[in-house]
Hints:
This protein is an alpha/beta fold. Helices cover 41% and strands 15% of the residues.
Amino acid sequence: MTATYDHTGRHVLITGGTKGIGAGLAAAFAAAGATVTVCARTPPPTSGTAGAQPLPGQVGFVRGDVRDAEDVERLVSGLPRLDVLINNAGGAPYAPLAGTSPRLHTKIVELNLIAPMLLSQRAYPLLAASRGAVIMIGSSSGTRPSPGTAAYGAAKAGLHHLAACLAAEWAPEVRVNTVVVGLAATENAAEHYGGAVDRVSATIPAGRMARPEDVAEACLWLAAPGYVTGAQIQVHGGGETPAWTWLTSAEISR
Length: 254
């Protein structure tokens, strides 16, 4: 059975919504009838951009940096109504902690933790008025060791906890949940995983990485009026098979 959701008349704001998972979320909510606004530092791709899927025509775009308080104020104050906020903007380059710039790691924490906190805070009055929902797009990097992206993993762990705190503070007017995304297949997956997408996918019990539509299904459900708040929904295909199982399997097969 395939679940369908009708979000007609509801207003949805998605940060980082011009590409990857964010663009998939925007397309899914627009298809469900919602009025969707996405924000990012760069405009969405056009139909001629290689490897990228342009946003549906009914999705609005606002340029802005969610780390900037003035941009956040301008973004939220321009909304007539808000039913769903999806804090999706995030990410980080590979940057081992030793020998790298402290400023880089500060910016990573700002983008992945501080920005969602401040945007949620600013959006709260609109969300409370509509009895709406906040959805944090978390990461498996915040639930297990994240070597090479320590600041990102720590920020995502903080984001998961922030969602739980806000769910308790803002209930019952506003529901706050987290979608914890595992390894994901987006337009940059081949570059991010060093061209080893097939081998990386083999470490996932489901046999493939998460797709934007997988994340969208969870968000469409959490955005619908309901009882669930303070939850973490794992969208990781069963997780990542520990390396020791591959080693022991190799030993057994000898």
